[in-house]
Automatic annotation (TrEMBL):
Lineage of the organism: Bacteria, Pseudomonadati, Pseudomonadota, Betaproteobacteria, Burkholderiales
GO cellular component, one term: periplasmic space
Pfam family, one: Redoxin
Protein name as catalogued: Thioredoxin
Organism (species): Bordetella genomosp. 11
InterPro entries (alphabetical): Redoxin, Thioredoxin-like_sf, Thioredoxin_CS, Thioredoxin_domain, Thioredoxin_ResA/DsbE_sf
Amino acid sequence: MKRRTLLRSLMALGGAAGTGPAWVRAASSSDPAAGLLTQTFPDLQGQPQPLAQWKGKPMLVNFWATWCPPCVKEMPELDALHKRHSGVQFLGLAVDSSANVVKFVAKLPVSYTLLVAGAGSIDLMRRLGNAPGGLPFTVILAADGRITKQILGPVDPAGLDKWLTEVAA
């Protein structure tokens, strides 16, 4: 029970339930992303998927949870952007349990890859620039692995579309 309370508190801190503007920061070239690309997480079938398999390709990594309303709300928007930007690897990292994610995608499927990162990924989010550990949290990596943008809170689809066009160029 304590874990669920902690996760909900972190979501409230980070996303403010979508009531305010998202925190957005363009990252400098010195931001470390190497820790992210060394991670391996299970897919929805339980098979380990190393993030290094997508090295060399621009990536959008979205940390989300089934119990996070702003996360759920932005998933169709991310799915539409995924379909528009085929040159960018989209990846949803669920700060949740595998069982919850499997049930969730049966109701709201998406076309991009979903992996289960679990509650332990909050430390990873903090290392990537999300000090409060809130959700949703999106990181965009250039093809060379540099973090080029971090968004804490819901994404702005139009702004993200423009950014992805630039990153994939």
